[in-house]
Design brief:
Elements lengths: L2 E3 L5 E6 L5 E6 L2 E5 L7 H11 L6 E3 L5 H4 L2 H8 L2 E5 H9 L10 H17 L9 E3 L3 E2 L7 E5 L8 E5 L3 E5 L18 H13 L4 E4 L5 E2 H15 L2
Parallel strand pairs: 4-5, 5-6, 6-7, 11-12
Antiparallel strand pairs: 1-2, 2-3, 3-4, 8-9, 9-10, 10-11, 12-13
Helix pairs in contact: 6-7
């Protein structure tokens, strides 16, 4: 499993990859799970959690509530009893297990949503869960002994969140996409302009590395280049 360690000693392990990345963040005896993967990956998720988790799972932070991020929330809650953290805008979707699919950001993804979105939304419903902590603004977890901030970064969805660790590294959910070379724009987003604004929020954190939920890490220089490119498109 790939892992990163900040200068302050916080460890981030990618405990699940492939369809959707899942991260375990550990520091000062506090453990956070970021997202839960789609339902079909639940056995691998449980196996890797048993392998890498040391102590209690204190928080489960959902970057948003689409099926490939939140489908196993109910099971993680049942087994590990973490406090579930979600944006207020997403809380009702998590409770129902029915999170609306986003719009496309290019011709192909827009075509997919138009032609198959309604059918797909019925297939990807999952067992709901009730959030313990609903947030709608930047939230600091330092009172629990770990230098983590949860930052609203809307655009992919209205209630998307990013997790800022030790001012060095950010887990960004679908605010960025890491599957295409030197590109950051997700193929799906409800509000592309708001998404680009969230990129600036991420740059303003001072982080040098951004870990998306799909694909590989993106450096600060790549994000700056992507932002310049997409901002230029909007001006024309």
């Amino acid at each position: 499993m790939k892992q990163w360690t900040t200068r302050a000693g916080t460890r981030i392990i990618k405990i699940l990859g492939g369809r959707s990345n899942v991260f375990l963040v550990s520091g000062n005896g506090i453990n956070l799970l970021i997202d839960t993967s789609p339902a079909f990956m639940v056995k691998r998720l449980q196996k890797n959690l048993r392998k890498h988790l040391r102590g209690n799972l204190d928080f489960l932070v959902l970057t948003h509530t689409h099926f490939d991020h939140a489908a196993n929330t109910h099971l993680i809650k049942k087994i590990y009893h973490p406090k579930i953290v979600v944006h207020t805008e997403e809380s009702r979707f998590l409770a129902s297990g029915d999170s609306p699919l986003p719009a496309g950001t290019n011709l192909f993804s827009s075509w997919l949503v138009r032609n198959f979105g309604r059918r797909a939304s019925q297939v990807v419903r999952y067992t709901g869960a009730v959030a313990d902590i609903n947030i709608d603004k930047e939230t600091d977890l330092s009172e629990y002994g770990i230098n983590v901030r949860i930052l609203p970064t809307p655009g992919h969805t209205a209630g998307s969140l990013s997790i800022i660790i030790d001012h060095e590294l950010a887990l960004v959910g679908d605010a960025l996409f890491g599957a295409f070379r030197r590109s950051c724009l997700p193929p799906f987003a409800d509000d592309t302009q708001e998404l680009i604004s969230s990129w600036q929020l991420l740059l303003d954190t001072g982080c040098d590395l951004f870990l998306p939920s799909h694909g590989s890490e993106r450096t600060r220089s790549i994000l700056e280049s992507c932002m310049k490119k997409e901002t230029g498109k909007m001006k024309h």
